TrEMBL record:
Belongs to the short-chain dehydrogenases/reductases (SDR) family. It comes from freshwater metagenome. One of its GO terms (molecular function) is oxidoreductase activity. Pfam families: adh_short_C2. NCBIfam families: PRK12826.1-2 (NF009466). This is Unannotated protein.
Amino acid sequence: MTASRTVLITGGNRGIGYAIAERFLSDGYQVAVTARSGNGPEGSMTVRADVTDSSSLDRAIAEVEAACGPISVLVANAGITKDTLLMRMSDEEFDSVIETNLGGVFRVVKRCITPMIKAKYGRVILISSVVGLFGSAGQVNYSSSKAALVGFARSLTRELGGRGITANVVAPGFITTDMTKALAPEQAEAYLKSIPAGRFADPAEVAGVVLWLASDDAGYISGAVIPVDGGLGMGH
């Protein structure tokens, strides 16, 4: 069944998005990724798009649909950070993160749900973060944008739950990416001490959860928030 399904992953050219694309490819999906630069994994289709640019998304989605057919699964992964303490945060640093991380999700989901409604089948998976619920000093903009995805997914569930469409949130914690590899040893050690699992996750561990949410086994799960954080944010 997966061979006939097309998945679109925003920001699929690196990190978690790249790992998600690899996992869907290995499971037989037709995989397309959006990227401002770089490419998705071999076997995927890469289209240029900026989630803050509506016209670029229109072009990208049209390209994917022409090559792969209707999009059945959407993974909204693209996001940015501009971390600084609130008292030092500029309006631009706040607005640009919200515009990308929340506005970008709105734009891409709005454009992908029409074929899902027609097919009476769809999976919308939003990549949030543990800090969206747990909070993080210096990340008021990022935490706010990621917390908002919970309300987005739950509202979408109430709108389209009866159309065979699910909408869920995955909230990763600290993941082994270029960002965490660049941490100073003492900073990495401090983060590790706060994680009950005592380690950072591999991006593939996030990808496995996303793949499962896209499967028929998860057809009765919607509006859920699934943490992949080693226990860091439990209770939140």
